[in-house]
Amino acid sequence: MTTEVRVPQLPESVADATLVAWHKKPGDSVVRDENLVDLETDKVVLEVPAPVAGVLKEIKLTDGTTVTSGQLLAVIEEAAAAAPGASAVAAAKTPGPAAPPTAPAATAAAGAPAGKLSPAAKRVAEENKIDPKAVAGSGRDGRVTKSDMVNFLSAKDAAPAAAAAPSPSPAGKAAPTQFVPAPSARAARAEQHVPMTRLRARIAERMVQAQATQALLTSFNEVDLKTVSELRARYKDQFEKQYGVKLGFMSFFTKACVEALKRFPSVNASVDGNDIVYHEYYDIGVAVSTDRGLIVPVLRDADQLSFADIEKSIANFASRARAGSITIEELTGGTFTITNGGVFGSLLSTPIVNSPQSAILGMHRIQDRAVVIDGQVVVRPMMYIALTYDHRIIDGREAVQFLVNVKQSLEDPARMVLSI
Fold it and tell me: Is 391 a residue of the active site?
C-alpha cells in the first residue's frame, strides 16, 4: 500500500513555497513524523513530516521547485522499513550502464545532518561541492550558516594564491621591479553568486514597497536609562529566580511604547485605501535577527502582558526563530514594531516601517555620556531612540510627543505602573 506526501495547506497570506532540500532519497526507510523535506516560504521554513512509516518509493519534485498547497511531493511504500544500505545493494545488483562517479564532496554534502546545516548553507554547499563537515559552524548548536560557507569559499580561493611563488629570474639579469598585490588582496576580489532566499527576497520587496508607498520621516530623542538600569540590577536575581527568565530592557521599552500608543492612537493605526484604521488593541512586533534574515514575531495584546510575560515571549521567539520553528501565524499582523540595533553596536539609525504598520521604534546602543542635570555635568547611560513614521497619518507633533512620552516612562518607570 502506498501513501502520498503532499504540500501542507499554506496560510492565505502565502501563495506558494520553494522546495529547499530533501532529507531522504528513494529507497530510504522513513519513520512516521520524520522530516522528509524543507519548504521555504516568504516568512518561515516549513518541515513536511512523513505521514506513515515505510520506504520512500518515489520523489516527484526536485530541490528548487516552486510548489503550492496540496501538490504531490513523494510516495511512501507502507512496508517494513528498508535496512540501511538496502537501496545501494539493490542498485548494485541491477544490470545496466554504470552510473557516473559522484564527486566525494558532493556526496558528503548530500549526507550532511539536516539539523546542522541551514537550507541556504546547504544550497551553497551543493552548488560549490563543499563538504559541510569541513566547515566550522558559527550558528546555534554548531549549525553551519550561509555566511560560514561563503567565508570557507573565500579562504579556499585564497589558498592557491598564497601558495604561488615568483619565478626565479635568469642568471645575471636582475628582475624588473614590479608591484605584486598581496595574496589576501587578490583573494578579496573573488565573487560568489548566491540566489536570494525567499525570505531575503520578501524582505527586499517589503522594504522597497514601504519607502515607495509611505511618506516616511524619522524623529529622534535620547533616554537616560539610569533608573531602569538600577531597577534591573536591584531585582534581576529575584526576577530570574521567580520567573525563570532574565529581566531585560525590551520589557521596559514594550511597556513604555504601549503607554505612549494609548495616548497617540494614530501611531498605532494603519492606512487602508482612503481610510485610517485605528486599532483598539496593541500587538507589538519585536524584530529578531536570524541566519536567514530579519523576522518580526508579534506579542499579542501586549498591554495585558506582565514584564515576565514579555521577557518569556521574546526569549521563546528568539530561540524558535533561529531554530526555524516559528509559525507563520506568529509573524502575521502587528500594529507597531520595536527593533533593537543596539545589540549589534548601532549608535543611531533610521529604521524602516514594517508595512502596513505606520511606525517603528528603533533602540540603540547604551553608551555612557556626559549630560547636564540640574546644572551639573554627570555621566549617565544614554540611548538614542528613533521613531520612523508614515507622515500621511502621523503629524510631526504627534511623533515628537510620542517619543517624549516613551522617554518619560523610561526615565521614571513609576509612570508605567500608575499610567500617568
Answer: yes
